């Protein structure tokens, strides 16, 4: 005769239950493996050109909105290097600082400047320079990152902190200075070049705008020179002019007794 089965307690844990489910103390002791360093993925190559931010080796900040002209002012310390933003050839070099508030001629507002025509066909201008690198002339080949001048405050920036006047446009003759001073908003490209996306090119936007406006559109903003000189400039000009002595008024000869001469 079989012995009766022993009654089991349903609340009793089955054998090995303790080892099957670790307790809180055991879970707290588990360490998460250290994460590896993030993998840096380069930005996608969006053009065949390689660009450089136009100020080298200095802290900078710049305007990211349209004020009057589609260009930007890159603030940096005096003497910082203005460099070629892309491979290309020198277009214009202006070594003199002829701008005067009394005339405010548009062609002279950028002061000392260098412009280049990039291998992308786009023109880039760096103005308000303190000095221009020796030996640069129209037609000189340059490489991206090559020093073209030193930042200053020439031209109509003479009463401001040092800065680089930076503009993007297309090639025209020197007479069309209002094209040279900037046609394409540059800050999206500056942001990309500064943050490492060195292939973002303004070529497509630049030539699309040229097709729309024509190669030599009329000047529509800040075109005229100053018609009236400030009082202090007038005084300077007055002092420079030679004075002409004023002749004394002549008296008529006396009449004789008959009333004739």
Gyration radius over CA:
37 Å
If you average the pLDDT, what whole number results?
A: 84
Shape: globular
Uncertain spans: none
Termini gap: 183 Å
Q: Give, in order, the helices and strands.
A: HHEEEEEEEEEEHHHH
Largest sheet: 10 strands, antiparallel
> Which percent bin holds the helix content?
10-25%
Discrete helix count? 6
Structural class: alpha+beta
CATH level 1 class label of the domain at 55-210: Mainly Beta
Based on the structure given, which CATH architecture of the domain at 55-210 is correct?
Answer: Distorted Sandwich
CATH topology of the domain at 55-210: Glucose Permease (Domain IIA)
Beta-strand percent range: 15-25%
CATH superfamily of the domain at 55-210: Glucose Permease (Domain IIA)
Number of strands: 10
Region (Disordered): 1-41, 220-261
Domain M23ase beta-sheet core: 76-172
Pfam families: Peptidase_M23 (PF01551)
Protein name: M23ase beta-sheet core domain-containing protein
Descriptive notes:
With 261 residues, this protein is of the alpha+beta class. It has a domain of 156 residues: Glucose Permease (Domain IIA), CATH 2.70.70. It is 16% helix and 20% strand. It contains 6 helices and 10 strands. Strands 1, 2, 3, 4, 5, 6, 7, 8, 9 and 10 form a 10-stranded antiparallel beta sheet that branches. A hairpin with a 3-residue loop joins strand 6 and strand 7. The chain is globular, with a radius of gyration of 37 Å. The termini are far apart.
């Amino acid at each position: 005769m079989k012995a009766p089965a022993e009654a089991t307690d349903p609340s009793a844990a089955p054998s090995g239950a303790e080892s099957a489910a670790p307790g809180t103390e055991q879970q707290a002791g588990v360490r998460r493996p250290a994460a590896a360093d993030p993998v840096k993925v380069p930005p996608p190559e969006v053009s065949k050109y390689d660009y450089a931010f136009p100020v080298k080796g200095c802290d900078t900040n710049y305007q990211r909105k349209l004020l009057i002209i589609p260009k930007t002012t890159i603030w940096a310390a005096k003497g910082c290097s203005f460099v070629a933003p892309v491979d290309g050839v020198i277009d214009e070099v202006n070594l003199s600082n002829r701008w005067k508030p009394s005339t405010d001629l548009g062609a002279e507002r950028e002061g000392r400047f260098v412009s280049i025509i990039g291998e992308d066909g786009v023109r880039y201008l760096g103005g308000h320079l303190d000095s221009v690198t020796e030996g640069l002339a129209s037609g000189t080949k340059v490489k991206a990152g090559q020093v073209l001048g030193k930042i200053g405050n020439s031209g109509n920036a003479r009463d401001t902190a040092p800065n680089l006047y930076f503009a993007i446009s297309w090639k025209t003759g020197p007479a069309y200075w209002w094209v040279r001073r900037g046609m394409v908003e540059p800050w999206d490209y500056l942001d990309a070049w500064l943050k490492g996306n060195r292939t973002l090119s303004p070529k497509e936007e630049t030539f699309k705008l040229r097709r729309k406006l024509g190669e030599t559109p009329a000047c529509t903003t800040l075109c005229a020179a100053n018609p009236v000189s400030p009082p202090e400039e007038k005084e300077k000009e007055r002092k420079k002019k030679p004075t002409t002595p004023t002749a004394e008024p002549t008296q008529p000869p006396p009449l004789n007794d008959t009333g004739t001469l």
